[in-house]
Amino acid sequence: MAKDSKLEARLKAVLDGLAAADQDGGNANAGTVLSMAVAAHPFDEQEAHLLSGGVPRGYKALTTATAKLVKAGWMVKGRSGWAITEEGLRALVAFPTPEELGAALASGTPVPAGTELPAPAEAAPEAEVAPEVAQAEEPAQGEEEAPAGESAGRSGQPEAVAIAGDFAALLGGAADWAPELDEVQMEFNAPTLSWVRTVDLPAGTYSFKIALNRSWAENYGAFGSFDGANHELTHEGGTVTINYRHDTKDIAIA
């Protein structure tokens, strides 16, 4: 598949993912949608090459190309996530293939007047549940219930946050700049609504980014910029604690 064709297919997959989220009644996590698009249309060796900031070339191209969907009025981006517009839903009807969608974006072709919204998918019938099964189960002996509100503090938070940079190998990771590794994941601190990780590093200067949900699809660099420049850490050696607040994208290093 040609380079442009693969990008068109991923953009179509992004719109499809946003349409599915819209049907579920909410915005979509940008990282999740982009990851699904890449999973459906994987990178080749050239696209998987890491740029100087540690982001695969293909991710950079895809995130940049989504600006075309915004310019066309087919999607919007916000802090609460990405969302498809009604015009975007109609675009999926008017331009049903990646090639047609890509051609429309390239030429600025508007969605034809009168294009109807796609029909909502029918919900699967709910399975009947026997009365005795429908009752809440008691915790098994020796098993404690989760404290009330424990999961509530994670509302609006990503599923995972990584300090992905050039020191992952020093933490036991298989490779640097790999946000999917367990060794670079941070822990969520509910009382402070922050993600925290304390590491022990030799003296030196290091670079890293905050990467969400074990991929580069959504990452934040200096000044909390999406896909921005690397954070720089000059360290005298020993333990260092990194804090990240997802609501503000702020980083604190102590």
TrEMBL record:
Residues 118-139 have a biased composition (Low complexity). InterPro entries: Ig-like_fold (IPR013783), X25_BaPul-like (IPR054409). Gene3D superfamilies: Immunoglobulins. Pfam families: X25_BaPul_like. Residues 161-250 form the Amylopullulanase X25 domain. Residues 107-156 are annotated as: Disordered. This is Amylopullulanase X25 domain-containing protein.
